[in-house]
Amino acid sequence: MSGKTLLQFGLHSPIRDERFIVTNRQYLRELVYDTVYLTKVVTENVPKLNLEQKKVYDEILNSIISDSGQLYFLDAPGGTNFLINLLLAKIRSEKNIAIAVASSGIAATLIDGGKTAHSAFKIPLNLGYSESLLCNISKQSDMAHVLREAKIIIWECTRHYG
Ligand SMILES: Nc1ncnc2c1ncn2[C@@H]1O[C@H](COP(=O)(O)OP(=O)(O)OP(=O)(O)O)[C@@H](O)[C@H]1O
Q1: Strand pairing report for 115-116 and 152-156
Q2: Which residues, 6 or more positions from 119, have their beta carbon under 8 angstroms from its beta carbon?
Q3: Could you report the per-residue pLDDT of 30-66, keeping only the tens digit for each?
Q4: Domains of the chain
Q5: Helix, strand or coil, per DSSP, at residue 38
Q6: Percent of the chain at pLDDT exceeding 90
Q7: 105 CA from centroid of ligand 1 (Å)
């Protein structure tokens, strides 16, 4: 009104957080999954988990529910990616953010919705020469918001044989 702000009339300004909810494309991209399909994937595949996989699956989901901020290192041949993809499906089926990254592009194709860690976290490419080894993500950026909202970050480190 008259080019003046609400505050100048002694009124409170509305609190708008739509910048992140509506225009944060990185945030929206992480929530674009078909939850009906993912729920079906979870329902069909959880019963297939073997005892060890189920133990890890439950442990990680419980740590997410209790918000205990745990770090897990999974190293078992034959079944890790199956388990990881099921965890991703479970979290995304509940409209939560699960970030999946890998050290290489090839490894990123093994996990659903996977990206390279360099691209997701804006890790400097010239690590050997760079004076600052910090990721290029500012606190106020869209990606920082996505990271804060994420329930889990999975980093696939494929082993190289030979
Ligand atoms: N509980 C399960 N029920 C049905 N199929 C499974 C189960 N666990 C693993 N698989 C299948 O076994 C194969 C190997 O599993 P996966 O790719 O997860 O192994 P990995 O440990 O990630 O890989 P690698 O064998 O290279 O270490 C895949 O085809 C996967 O679908």
Answers
A1: unpaired
A2: none
A3: 989 999 999 999 999 999 999 999 999 999 999 999 9
A4: 15-156 (3.40.50)
A5: helix
A6: 52
A7: 19
44 Cα: distance to centroid of ligand 1 (angstroms): 15
Q: Is the shortest distance between the CB of 45 and ligand 1 below 6 Å?
A: no
Q: What is the pLDDT of residue 48?
A: 97
Cα–ligand 1 centroid distance for 80 (angstroms): 6
Q: What is the ipTM of this complex?
A: 0.94
Give the residue ranges of DSSP H helices in 32-151: 35-45, 51-65, 80-93, 105-108, 117-121, 142-149
| Contact in structure between 123 and 109 (CB atoms under 8 Å) | no
Do residues 161 and 106 touch, judged by C-beta distance below 8 A?
no
| Token output for 75 | 């190293």
